[in-house]
Amino acid sequence: MLLTAAEPWPENATLYQPLTEDQILLSDCASSLAVQAYLRMCGLPVQVVSRANAEYMSPSGKIPFIHVGNQVVSELGPIVQFTKAKGHSLSDGLDDVQRAEMKAYMELVNNMLLTAELYIQWCDDATAAEISRPRYSSPYSWPLSNILAYQKQWEVRRKMNAIGWGGKTLEQVYEDVSQCCQALSQRLGTQPYFFNKQPTELDALVFGHLFTILTTRLTNSELAERIKSYSNLLSFCKRIEQTYFEDKSS
Amino acid sequence: MGTVHARSLDALPMQGPELGFQADDIEAPETEPEPKQEVLENRDVVVQRVHIDGLGRTKEDLLTYEIAEVFRAKNLIDVMKMSHEARQKLLRLGIFRKVEVVIDTSQGEDALPNGLDVTFEVTELRRMTGSYSTMVGNNEGSMVLGLKLPNVFGRAEKLTFQFSYGTKETSYGLSFFKPQPGHFERNISLGVYKVTGQFPWSSLRETDRGISAELNFPLWKTNQTLKWEGVWRELGCLARTASFAVREESGHSLKSSLSHAMVIDTRNSSILPRKGGLLKIHQELAGYTGGDASFLKEDFEIQLNKPLFWDSVLSASLWGGLLLPIGDKPTSIADRFYLGGPTSIRGFSMYSMGPQSEGDYLGGEAYWAGGLHLYTPLPFRPSMGGFGDLFRTHFFVNAGNLCNLNYGEGPQAHLKKLAECIRWSYGLGIMLRLGNIARLELNYCIPMGVQSGDRICDGVQFGAGIRFL
């Protein structure tokens, strides 16, 4: 990172995400909640601001992004690096083996959970037509709303095809989610956090995704049901919500 | 160019066998040689037939309007004058490559002794023409490739496809132009286009995809334009280092606007006028026909020119504009006005005046700019009527201001704001006229009244363009 390490975390740090009521989709909400959880765990105050064009404001095109001082950083990975350069880190206490394990599990969540969320949002026709397209295009007027919604859908479907998810059925995706949750549940065991006593960025990421899936209404509740079958994950989510988000109403 | 031949009129006693004229020489009847003129003018003639030869796909009903005047000629000089005018009218339709006029005595059984036949021999343009040209805009240049289908359906409709690649903009577009038969100045244009522009002074990148429909018509002495435009605008940051204010404007928006423009132009040239004036008033209302953007935009342009002693010209110009947002959405950076540069207030960098954030200029919602110029021929007058004629020396004073509106304050506060902190500059330079299309300027400028945040270009400044303050 740059020489901004010397500057302390300012009071007016802001996190940008799409409009909460009408626009934001499951995957973006999950990513944003993960970053918010991470920053709360670090004890860094941040204000959440909703903008209709948040996706286009982001330097990488992905939600969320934070505006700190005069720096703009997007996505959890770079944000973790950024805070580390400022002297705040959650994974300092881990040894190399644990750190590698943490990275592997974070990859798992990104490759499985996030991709599954995107698949369900955009590749499942029912969800796309009833939820994703109307919400994504809500800030815009016709015909721009249709153009942008279909453009996004086409782009996500193309990406799904590129990574080999194009041919999957919804059932297979649910199965993948179940397997991912099983791996997470096994790693978590009876510990409060993934690396025993202290939360790390992995905890923030898992919380962001699982909590959002549990609390978002989709066309059917199959996805939430799959997660609910792992009780330790449920109590994990509740624990983090109560510890770090007690003032937040979900 | 074209030729008007008058064949010998056998019934007339004439001194010479033939009269040959160049059409361009016919300015007024007085140019004809005196003795013949008397004879000809006294002779009443009747135009019996007017033919147009060489028509392919052009429909005849379109042309009857243009040549109708010829029938009204009462004597030979009138016939020549009317045919010349009709020839000009036919050429301005843009569908003929060449038009020649032939005036002959009437032949045939029903020929009157003083009857005349006028024939226009036309050569139509090819069905499809390609063109490659370079274009000069305001401080930018571009290469333009064009494909034109003139006279598509036979009534002077024109279909044009244009691709332009320039220093600041890349664009392509398709447009369809249709004049009203008989009233060429009344026409309708439909277009669809995509323009990508880069604006380094704002660190902004803009892509516009739009469709437009435009109606032009003359009204008394003015030229009016009514236009509807629907544009999908995409804004983005030009660099990672763009200011956050510009980053906040990124994204998509839809603008659907109705606009009206009125132009009165009595100047003899738009690039280097010697006399006359220009008044242009333009207003745009967005948001009432759909779209996200909602505003009312007014701007005007006035220019007056007065020739003085020794071939010099005094020119005064005034520009102004106002952008009023309707509703509670703030205005977009793409709609605001920009000021400064070699084509507006000289001595300041291009569009680098007014509200800014971290070095990126955000434009303003209200502005005014005025200029006073004295153009004189080059001091040493290299060659009268030669290359030296294209140059002028140029003394100028420019002033102006650009600011944002502060809602809640009344119009008085805004006027006061525009009147304080005026930026102005003065200087002198040399100007070169490029045909009737563009002009180049090389000026030595001294900017004054510079406010913090403005970027100046004091000293030598070069400018090229078509519209200068």
Quick rundown:
Chain A: Pfam families: GST_C_6, GST_N_4. The complex is a heterodimer of chains A (250) and B (469). Chain A is of the alpha+beta class and 250 residues long.
Query: Largest protein interface?
Result: A-B, 17 and 17 residues
Main sheet properties of chain A: 4 strands, mixed
Number of helices of chain A: 10
In CATH's first tier, which class of the largest domain in chain A applies? Answer: Mainly Alpha
Question: What summary fits the major beta sheet of chain B?
Answer: 16 strands, antiparallel
Number of domains of chain B: 2
Rounded to the nearest angstrom, the radius of gyration of chain B is: 27 Å
Order of helices and strands of chain B: EEHEHHEEEEEEEEEHEEEEEEEEHEEE
What does this structure look like?
The complex is a heterodimer of chains A (about 250) and B (about 475). Chain A folds into 2 domains: about 15-85, 3-Layer(aba) Sandwich (Glutaredoxin); about 95-245, Up-down Bundle (Glutathione S-transferase Yfyf (Class Pi), Chain A, domain 2). Helices cover about 60% and strands about 5% of the residues of chain A. Chain A is built from 10 helices and 4 strands. Chain A has helices at about 25-40, 55, 75-85, 95-125, 125-135, 145-160, 170-190, 200-215, 220-230, 230-245; strands at about 15, 45-50, 65-70, 70-75. Chain A has a 4-stranded mixed sheet, covered by helices on one side. In chain A, strand 1, helix 1 and strand 2 (about 45-50) form a beta-alpha-beta unit. With about 475 residues, chain B is mainly β. Chain B has 2 domains: about 45-125, membrane protein fhac (Ubiquitin-like (UB roll), Roll); about 130-465, membrane protein fhac: a member of the omp85/tpsb transporter family (Porin), CATH 2.40.160. Chain B is built from 5 helices and 23 strands. Chain B has helices spanning about 35-40, 60-65, 75-90, 245, 410-420, and strands at about 5, 20, 45-55, 95-105, 115-125, 130-135, 140-150, 160-165, 170-180, 185-200, 205-220, 220-235, 250-265, 275-290, 295-305, 315-325, 355, 360, 365-375, 390-405, 425-435, 440-450, 460-465. Chain B has a 16-stranded antiparallel sheet. Chain B is globular. The interface of A and B includes residues 51, 70, 142, 144 and 148 of A. Chain B: It comes from Monopterus albus (Swamp eel). Chain B: Belongs to the SAM50/omp85 family. Chain B: It is a multi-pass membrane protein.
